[in-house]
Amino acid sequence: LDLACNELGGAGGQALSEALKTNTSLTTLNLSCNEFGDAGGQALAEALKRNTSLTTLNLCSNKLGDAGSRALAEA
Hints:
With 75 residues, the protein is mostly helical. It has helices at residues 9-22, 37-50, 65-74, and strands spanning 28-30, 56-58. Strands 1-2 form a two-stranded parallel ribbon. Strand 1 (28-30), helix 2 and strand 2 form a beta-alpha-beta unit. Helix 1 (9-22) packs parallel to helix 2 and helix 2 runs parallel beside helix 3.
């Protein structure tokens, strides 16, 4: 699924993370250039802890910040 360059922002990242927590079929997701920021990065990290189907995730150019990047690294 390619959702690149949609300017989803932190709120969009949080909403998307709720769907990812229960999704069992999506394997590839391109979320580049959506400016998720720290809040979106942290929400996505929580979703990745639960999601077992996603194998490829592109998060480049999202201004994740230190907290968002750290959360994703620990997910």
